[in-house]
Amino acid sequence: MLERMRGLVVSQERIVLLTAVVLFLAFSIFLRGFVSSGNLITLVRGVAILGTLGVGMGIVVIGRGIDLTIVAIYAMSAAWTLQLASFGVSIPAALLLGFLLALTAGAINGVLIAYVEIPALFATLGMASLVFGFVRWALVPLQVVYMPASVNAVAWIGGGFVYGAPTPILFFALIAFLGFAFLRFTKPGRFIYAIGDNFAAARISGAPVRRIIVLQYLLSASIAYVAGMITATAVSSMNTNVVNSSLITDVILVVVLGGIGLSGGRGGIRNVIVGTLLIGILVNGMTIMNIEFTVQNVIRSLILLAAIVLDSIINPRDEQTAQQGDI
């Protein structure tokens, strides 16, 4: 039975990858400007940001959690970094403080979920509002924070090229590789799979489940901060209102659509990459076609619902899973 389910997951991954290829070819033929160098760079950068956030979300979902704070951390920690730099704080200090803000939010998420035992859905939903509200009130009272000239020294993070490849896609590749290596070859990575597959069995076997859960959210927050700085240096600003956008839907979508089961313990970074390719190409194409933003949201929401239904069929929840109260 397990082997049959795994085969279905692989089939889902292949179908999504094939769909992405077909969509890319169709847009290349029928959409004027889709294969222009400027649009391809935009597409690559968009895919890189979405995929980087997807890696963080994927690590959490594999451990049978969810992180609705990831976009708030992504935007607000990077915005505060730019704000600090504009006030004359040195670049290393600004980067460190922004990263510590992200880690603090991640640590609070982990503690609330692992030790206070608040369901991840509610803990991270509340923290997303708290992070956004606190930073806007106390640290960054601006909707858009622009990158000061002093940050030009690190502008290559989001706006540079290495051997002709945009640095955002290289960062995505690096983070994806590190995420893959962590999950596949380290003991904490194997514990994450064990917790996602059967929380009670993992705890009985001696796995430090509470510490691993905290680690998941620390990793997610760290990755979110990197993605935030890539965006901030790519466009020379950070719009804090992105927290209220549909980005969190897209991040969840690339994870579930790619084949990572919401019931936990299944999937990997490869699934995130496949899902990211499809959604990145789709969003870029819809933007070129000048499809109204509300309609784009409807399309993405329908795809997300379909992906969740497919996930519930491929990874059905048994009695033990239902009792888990995972997300």
Summarize the structure.
The protein is mostly helical and 327 residues long. The chain is built from 14 helices and four strands. A two-stranded antiparallel ribbon has the order 1-4.
The CATH first-level class comes to Mainly Alpha
* Overall geometry: globular
CATH architecture annotation? Orthogonal Bundle
By DSSP, the count of extended strands is: 4
The major pleated sheet works out as: 2 strands, antiparallel
Structural class label: mainly alpha
Q: Briefly note the CATH topology name.
A: ABC transporter involved in vitamin B12 uptake, BtuC
Summed over residues and divided by their number, the pLDDT gives a mean of 88
Rg from alpha-carbon coordinates:
19 Å
Counting structural domains, the number is 1
Low-confidence stretches: 4-10, 319-326
